[in-house]
Amino acid sequence: MCETKHDVLTKCPFRANLSGQMRKSNNFWRKGVAVMKCIAGLCSRLAAGVALAGLAWGAALARDLDPAVPADAVEISKRMQCGAADGEPAVFHWSGRVYSRVQGEPDRLLFRGEGMNVRRCVAVEDPVRGKGYRMVSREIMLFLDPKTGEILREWKNPWTGETVEVMQIANDPVNSRPTYPRTADGKPFSIPTLMRQGDWLFMPIEVPLFYHNVLGGDYQDYVGNKYHAMEIFDFAVPANDILDASKPTAYPSISWVRISDWMPWMKMRGRQGQLVFNAVGSKLRKGAALPAVLREEIARNYPAYTSPPPGDDDRPNETTWTVFRKLVDERRSAGKKD
């Protein structure tokens, strides 16, 4: 038996040889462990570097947009209005009521309304004004019976007693001018009405309208009949959603008020008074559905309104007044009644 180290070396030569091999193997193992430790250290340092770089990149993405910086103000405006990516459609929906306002009598609830605007925003760039966006859209609003909620095809005018055909609001296109970090007169772009209250960011926009009425004749500066209205849009959105640079868009709620002349199809013949529209809604998240009354009417009579115009759409904007004039002119040229 080989009992001692000397025995291993003298009496058991085959074991001595094995012992030598084991020593060599142990040395190789120790060297391998050292190499592996070195590699592990290198990988650890590399991983730490990558992690730090990732944190730095994440920090850059997670910064808050600053409304005082023109490029950030453009981005805030775009997120409020547009889809999650360049050219991606976005849909706003609203629901509300339409009242009359006539001097000397109580206001009347005339209609309920359901409306939507489908839009896309595309990137634009100007060598002087910088990088911005342009929005193209089309919109529809249905006049509904205030009691039943059904779409009105005809309406009995309570002032004249005449039954008239209802023309739904269907304007295509409704496009905007490009928005850049510098305005047309060279000033830095800003959103002067933007305000923060706690966790919320508000963006009220008032749009006073006073311009040539396409139904009003050629002497409006002398005898009146200018188109005169006011549209008010109040956006509200969680500040963290819209200011976080790592988020591609936001989903604001919106209130919309419109004060305008009578709709031309109401056939009021110059009667004193106005319409007051009041509605609330939001930008819809992906997959959210419009109310059935809108979906079905669009599918039946307004299929183009399932998607926005192309980003390079250069057609002049339409309004209820321009659409109504075209309709009447077409009927007259065809020998039909207005």
Strand portion: 25-35%
Mean pLDDT: 88
Q: H/E series, N to C?
A: HHHEEEEEEEEHEHEEHH
Helix content: 25-40%
Strand order of the largest sheet: 6-3-2-1-11-10-9-8-7
Uncertain runs: 1-25, 50-60
Largest pleated sheet: 9 strands, antiparallel
* Cα radius of gyration in angstroms: 35 Å
- Helix tally equals 7
Task: Reconstruct the topology from this structure.
Layout: H1 5-10, H2 13-61, H3 70-81, E1 90-101, E2 108-126, E3 130-144, E4 154-156, E5 163-165, E6 169-171, E7 195-197, E8 200-211, H4 220-223, E9 227-238, H5 239-243, E10 253-260, E11 274-283, H6 292-301, H7 320-333
Antiparallel strand pairs: 1-2, 1-11, 2-3, 3-6, 4-5, 7-8, 8-9, 9-10, 10-11
Describe this structure in words.
The chain has helices at residues 5-10, 13-61, 70-81, 220-223, 239-243, 292-301, 320-333; strands spanning 90-101, 108-126, 130-144, 154-156, 163-165, 169-171, 195-197, 200-211, 227-238, 253-260, 274-283. It is α+β, with helices and mostly antiparallel strands. β1 and β2 (108-126) form a beta hairpin. The longest helix is centred in the N-terminal third of the chain and has 49 residues, at 13-61. The chain starts with a helix and ends in a 5-residue tail after the last helix.
Can you give me a brief rundown of this structure?
By secondary structure, this protein is an alpha+beta fold. 30% of the residues lie in helices and 30% in strands.
Name the descriptors.
9-stranded antiparallel β-sheet; single chain; two-stranded antiparallel sheet; 11 strands; alpha+beta; 338 residues; 30% strand
